[in-house]
Design brief:
This protein has two domains: 351 residues, Amidase signature (AS) enzymes (Alpha-Beta Complex); 79 residues, no CATH class. The chain has 16 helices and eleven strands.
Amino acid sequence: MNPTQTTLLELRDAIAAKKISAKQAVTAYLDRIDQHNNTLNAYHETYADRALQRAQDVDADKVTGPLAGVPIAIKDNLATDWGVTTCSSKILENFRSPYTATAVAKLEAAGAVILGKTNLDEFAMGSSTENSAFGPTRNPWDTHRVPGGSSGGAAAAMAADLCAGSIGSDTGGSIRQPAALCGVVGFKPTYGRVSRFGLVAFASSLDQIGPLTRTVSDAALMLSVISGPDERDSTCASQQPRDYLAEVDQPVSGLRIGVAKQYISDTNDPAVNQAVDEAINMFRSCGAQIVEIDLPHTQYGIPTYYLVATAEASSNLARYDGVRYGRRCDDPKDLIDLYSRSRAEGFGEEIKRRIMLGTYALSSGYYDAYYVRALKVRRLIKRDFDLAFSSCDAILCPTTTAPAFRLGEKSDDPLSMYMNDVYTVNANLAGIPGISLPGGFTTVTHNGTPPQKLPLGIQLLGPVFEETKLLRIARMYESATTHHQVRPSL
């Protein structure tokens, strides 16, 4: 078997049955990374020696668990006490963490082999992975296009079979949006389902860690491993993890799928609306009832998000001052010069833009007008979802407004870039789980270039802590389609 052309579950079972060794699997992925990463820039660094030693321990039965021997990639805003944790920022380019994120520690406790860390928009702020201080990641389906963001490296690595599974973070769509643009599964759990300890903070009330995988079943297994309580994260729920994989193939009887008129817009690429229509028809053919719902505050999601998120970012990023850790400028004249120059040299333009916006929203005289008002609208958005879920089990909508755009296409238009997250940010504001699924393909051309086949994503949103049902509904869709089986030609 070719270990890089399987699903995570298939590879896990093959290693457990000794049909292939963990060392063979890890070697195959490392070889593939060597072959393709120079083009894609999905990984910042790999840990070949460490990964191979770990694989040997699996083969010797010294390491066991539900992910024993499975090669996994992690987004480079998750701290590890090996390698560097850069957040794709110059301000942290040489930072070595003294501890490991809980989610990563749980992966290793389950036997996973960490291959390396993946590229992202700096401090997870972006929708294209073009904001990385170490160069953009390219989409495996068309290397002239973005993979989405901010978990673009994790999504591109997954789509290009440079790992068997990956984990990223989702603050306003940063798992689901790149999953859609790269044609893989991306799952954002309920806020509090997965510990944020060791995740470098962007917006603490919005950030959440989740898996990117080839299939829904793979995502269910990874979520079972990384979820659960953690006393080191006060926002982590006390609920014990579920065996999501055990129930994922059980169909949902009496299924009601909600469709909001606000999510089917003429501004969407026609192929996106068509993918949603096809998903509606598929669910209807499976016996589901399609329910029209109303989410009246949808249009306020983007401005609300970009006030709440930037305000929290302004606070969280204040710690990077050139004194305790991170980049420090040369020969500062005084303390103020040290602070200002270290931050100016270390942060990219998008980070500076968001810090300034957040600081303004929190400043005296504007706090009530902007930040407090945004929190009130956030509560209204949450109430919209609560009311909607009283009449449906899950909400079906697009993940993105269009397929992947070309590198540089939106770089000079921040508002256009921000609108890429119009269908994802509200789930973070409400704290609900969401999953992006491969929803088909569209063909695009540009200036006479050969037609390119690009993936589309559809999204399912569920009530808080209803991951089990949401994964079952997602699996119903996946089992009736073949979109997830298609891989890009590299």
